[in-house]
C-alpha cells in the first residue's frame, strides 16, 4: 500500500504537470542549482539591473522623483522603533510585513546611494528578527514573509555585512525559516495544507520560501534542492485560479496579496536560476493586471467583495509594473503611473520600473467580464471620477474569503459610492474561518447575506454552497448589461432566481432587476446597503451623500414601497456606524415575482433618468 505522504506528493505532481495547458519544467533536486547565479545580489534586482536603473535615472526625471520618494521612506524607517516579537491574535504577520517593507526601502536606498546609514539600519532590523524565538510557523504566512524579508536583505546587503552579522542572519534564516519550510513540504503527515491551496497562501508561502532558499543556495544548497522543486510543483495549483481571464476569487484586495508574491517568486527564479519554468505563461496571468483596474470604481473604491477591507481603495501596486514588464503592457504601466502621481512610489516599483508611454493612461473598454472562481461584471459610463459605475458578482459562495453575496452589486456616481459592501470583520472573531454548511462564519452580519445588496427570501441568507453563473454579458456604446442565474442560492424557496444589472439611458442610470419563481408564499426583501441619508417617497427614495443626490425608483411591482433599516451591529462585530439599508418588503409572494429598481444620479448637466423599459430578463 502506498504511504499517504507519497500519495499526496504524487497527486501534487500530477496536478502540477501543466500550468493551464502549458508544460511545467520542474527540475530535479540534483539539477535545480546547476544554473544558479553564484554572486550576490542574485535576487530580482541584480547588479547589472541596478546599473541600468541608475543610468536611466540620469535622463528620466520621473524616475528621479520616484527615487527621491523611496529615499524619504527609507529615512522615515530609520526613525522607527526596533521590531519586536509581538503577536496580534495568532499572527506575527504585521511584524513580518514591516520587516519586509523596511528591508526593501533601506536596501534600495543603500544600493542607490552607497550611504552606509541605510545598510546599517537594514542590518539592525535583520539581526533583530533573526534573534526572535521563532517566526510563528503555526501561522505560516508569518514565516514565509519573514523568510522573504531576511532572504532579500541577506542577498542585497551581502557585500556590506560583516562576517559575524552575515552568519547570524544566515543562521536565523535557516533555523527560523528554512527548517520550518522543509517541514511544511515533507512532514510525516504529508505537506502543509497550503501546498495544495488554490489561493493566496500558496503564492505567499511558496514564494517566500523560494526567496529565502535561493538567497543562501551557495552555502546551504540542501534547502533550495528541497524547496524549489516542491514550490514549482505547488504554484501551478494556485496559478490556475487566474484562468481564464485574470479574475481573483478572493477579491481585488487579495488579488494584490497573491499577485505580488507571484511577481516576487517568479522574478527571483528568473534572476537566480535564469528561468521561471514557464509559470508566467499560466492562463489568465497576462490579463490579470486588468482586474484591479476594472474593479475599481470612479470613486477610487474597489468592487469590495470577499474579505476586502472596509472602503478598500486601490493604491499603487508594484506588481502591476512587473506585469507590464513581463507582458509588454504600456496600458498597465500607464495606469500604475497615474496612481503613483498621486500617492508615490515604493522601492519595489524601482526594481520593476517601466517608464510611462507618451500617450499616458488612456482607457479602452468601458465594460468587462471576468470569469473563474468568481464571475464579475463591471460597467461604466467613462473613466472620470464622477462617472457612473456598477459592478455585480457571481461565482461560488465557498471561495476562500468569500461571503454569502451572489448577485451583490455596488454603485458609483458623482464621485460617491452609493451601494456599498461593508467588507471584512475581525479575523480573530470565534469561528470566523468556519465556512462549511452551517459554519460559524455565516453568523456574522458582514459575511452573511443580511448585510449585502442581495434579495432575501424568508429573511434567510443564501445557501452556503451555492453558485451563480452569468448567462449573458453585452456591451455597446449606449448600454451594458448582464444576467446572473443565482437560483441555487435560494432553493428550495425558489425554483428560479435571476438578477439583471444594466446601464440604461445612454449610460446615465443603472437598472437592477430580480426575477423569482417562488415555490410557495414567501416574504421577499429587496435590499441595498448604503452610507447615504435617505428620504422616502413611497416607491421612490432620494439618497444624499457628500452633497450629491441619487434617486432610486421601484418600477415593478406596482405598489411596492421603500423603507429604511439600520445596518448597525453590536460588539464584538464591527459597528457599521451610520450605515443604512434601503429595502422593499413584499409579503407572502408566490409564483413569478419581478422587482425592478432604477438608480438615477442627479447629474449637474442634465435631468435624472426617470423611466426605463421593464421587460423579462429572458428578453434582455
Q: Main β-sheet, in a few words?
A: 11 strands, antiparallel
Q: Tally the helices: what do you get?
A: 14
- The overall strand count is 18
User: What spatial form do the alpha-carbon principal axes imply?
Assistant: globular
* First and last CA, distance: 57 Å
Could you estimate the helical fraction of the residues in percent? 25-40%
Portion in strands: 15-25%
Structural class: alpha+beta
Which stretches are low in confidence, meaning pLDDT under 50 for 5 or more residues running?
1-17
What is Rg?
26 Å
Mean pLDDT: 94
Short descriptors:
single chain, 620 residues, alpha+beta, eleven-stranded antiparallel beta sheet, five-stranded antiparallel beta sheet, 14 helices, 34% helix, disordered N terminus
Q: Could you write a compact summary of the structure shown?
A:
The chain is an alpha+beta fold and 620 residues long. It is 34% helix and 20% strand.
Amino acid at each position: 500500500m502506498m504511504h499517504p505522504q507519497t500519495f499526496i506528493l504524487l497527486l501534487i505532481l500530477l496536478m502540477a504537470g501543466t500550468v493551464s495547458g502549458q508544460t511545467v519544467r520542474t527540475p530535479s533536486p540534483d539539477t535545480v542549482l546547476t544554473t544558479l547565479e553564484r554572486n550576490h545580489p542574485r535576487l530580482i534586482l541584480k547588479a547589472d539591473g541596478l546599473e541600468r536603473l541608475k543610468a536611466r535615472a540620469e535622463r528620466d526625471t520621473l524616475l528621479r522623483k520616484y527615487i527621491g520618494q523611496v529615499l524619504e521612506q527609507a529615512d522615515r524607517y530609520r526613525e522607527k522603533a526596533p521590531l519586536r516579537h509581538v503577536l496580534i491574535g495568532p499572527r506575527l504577520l504585521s511584524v513580518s510585513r514591516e520587516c519586509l517593507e523596511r528591508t526593501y526601502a533601506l536596501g534600495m536606498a543603500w544600493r542607490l546611494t552607497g550611504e552606509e546609514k541605510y545598510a546599517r539600519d537594514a542590518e539592525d532590523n535583520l539581526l533583530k528578527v533573526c534573534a526572535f524565538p521563532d517566526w510563528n510557523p503555526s501561522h505560516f504566512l508569518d514565516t514565509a514573509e519573514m523568510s522573504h524579508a531576511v532572504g532579500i536583505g541577506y542577498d542585497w546587503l551581502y557585500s556590506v555585512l560583516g562576517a559575524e552579522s552575515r552568519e547570524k542572519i544566515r543562521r536565523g534564516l535557516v533555523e527560523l525559516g528554512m527548517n520550518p519550510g522543509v517541514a511544511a513540504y515533507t512532514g510525516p503527515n504529508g505537506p502543509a495544507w497550503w501546498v495544495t491551496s488554490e489561493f493566496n497562501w500558496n503564492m505567499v508561502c511558496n514564494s517566500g520560501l523560494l526567496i529565502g532558499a535561493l538567497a543562501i543556495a551557495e552555502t546551504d544548497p540542501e534547502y533550495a534542492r528541497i524547496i524549489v522543486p516542491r514550490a514549482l510543483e505547488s504554484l501551478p495549483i494556485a496559478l490556475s485560479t487566474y484562468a481564464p481571464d485574470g479574475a481573483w476569487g478572493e477579491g481585488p484586495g487579495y488579488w494584490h496579496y497573491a499577485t505580488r508574491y507571484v511577481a516576487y517568486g517568479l522574478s527571483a527564479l528568473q534572476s537566480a536560476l535564469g528561468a521561471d519554468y514557464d509559470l508566467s505563461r499560466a492562463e489568465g496571468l497576462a490579463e490579470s493586471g486588468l482586474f484591479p483596474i476594472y474593479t475599481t470604481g470612479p470613486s477610487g473604491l474597489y468592487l469590495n467583495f470577499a474579505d476586502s477591507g472596509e472602503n478598500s481603495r486601490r493604491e499603487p501596486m508594484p506588481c502591476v509594473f512587473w506585469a507590464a514588464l513581463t507582458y509588454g503592457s504600456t496600458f498597465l504601466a500607464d495606469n500604475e503611473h497615474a496612481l503613483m502621481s498621486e500617492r508615490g512610489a515604493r522601492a519595489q516599483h524601482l526594481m520593476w520600473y517601466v517608464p510611462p508611454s507618451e500617450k499616458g493612461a488612456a482607457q479602452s473598454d468601458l465594460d468587462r467580464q471576468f470569469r473563474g472562481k468568481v464571475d464579475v461584471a463591471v460597467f461604466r459610463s467613462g473613466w472620470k471620477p464622477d462617472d457612473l459605475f456598477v459592478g455585480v458578482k457571481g461565482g461560488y459562495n465557498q471561495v476562500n474569503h468569500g461571503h454569502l453575496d451572489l448577485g451583490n452589486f455596488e454603485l458609483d456616481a458623482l464621485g460617491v459610492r452609493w451601494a456599498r459592501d461593508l467588507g471584512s470583520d475581525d479575523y480573530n472573531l470565534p469561528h470566523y474561518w468556519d465556512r462549511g454548511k452551517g459554519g460559524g462564519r455565516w453568523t456574522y452580519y458582514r459575511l452573511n447575506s443580511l448585510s449585502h445588496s442581495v434579495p432575501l427570501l424568508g429573511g434567510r441568507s443564501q445557501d452556503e454552497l451555492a453558485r451563480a453563473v452569468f448567462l449573458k454579458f453585452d456591451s455597446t456604446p449606449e448600454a451594458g448589461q448582464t444576467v446572473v442565474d443565482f437560483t441555487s442560492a435560494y432553493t428550495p424557496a425558489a425554483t428560479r432566481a435571476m438578477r439583471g444589472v444594466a446601464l440604461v439611458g445612454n449610460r446615465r442610470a443603472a437598472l437592477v432587476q430580480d426575477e423569482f419563481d417562488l415555490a410557495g408564499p414567501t416574504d421577499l426583501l429587496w435590499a441595498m446597503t448604503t452610507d447615504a441619508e435617505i428620504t422616502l417617497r413611497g416607491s421612490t427614495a432620494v439618497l444624499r451623500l457628500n452633497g450629491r443626490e441619487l434617486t432610486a425608483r421601484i418600477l415593478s411591482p406596482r405598489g411596492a414601497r421603500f423603507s429604511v433599516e439600520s445596518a448597525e451591529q453590536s460588539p464584538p462585530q464591527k459597528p457599521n456606524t451610520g450605515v443604512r439599508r434601503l429595502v422593499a418588503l413584499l409579503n407572502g409572494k408566490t409564483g413569478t415575482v419581478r422587482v425592478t429598481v432604477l438608480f438615477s444620479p442627479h447629474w449637474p448637466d442634465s435631468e435624472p433618468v426617470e423611466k426605463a423599459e421593464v421587460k423579462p430578463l429572458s428578453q434582455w
